[in-house]
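no rush on this but wanted to send it before i forget. what follows is a protein written twice so to speak, once as letters and once as structure tokens for the fold. mainly i need to know what kind of three dimensional shape the backbone takes. thanks a lot i owe you, the record is right below.
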Amino acid sequence: MNPAEHLKLIAFLGASTIASKADREGGGFVRRFGEWAAQAGSALKVSGFGIDGDTLLGMRDRARRDIAPLRPDLTVISTGINDTRREGAPDAPNKTALADYRSAFAELLGAVRAFSKAAVLGPFAINDRDTQPLRGTTLYYSRADAERYVAVQ
């Protein structure tokens, strides 16, 4: 028996990795996941809730407002790295202080667990060459920051 057979709806919550605007060919992670499930013969439904640039507190609020009424069987949280970003300079403060991130993560997880099971996808790998700054912006992301923050999860 496949342990995922009892799942009817999976909600994916996150920022740009869930919004999937960069994947113009395949429609993004959530769409690809849904297609994979369909090809495997599953009746599973997937729903994506991704907003570029979102932070954990934004995700918490959207989980309560937009996902809770759907009562998914599972909510997959993709934390991303927006809370770790530095604006204007590589030595500027992180958008969210580590202590605040810790409490925001606990709030987000608690909000999701109030209506569904939860799974967490940590941030994807960061190549400092490509994110210092990010594509012509004044936003700086670093692998070291991401590793410090994901350790909280």
Q: What stands out?
A: The CA atoms of residues 55 and 82 lie 6 Å apart. The helical segments are 16-19, 29-39, 56-67, 98-113, 128-131, 143-150. The longest helix spans residues 98-113.
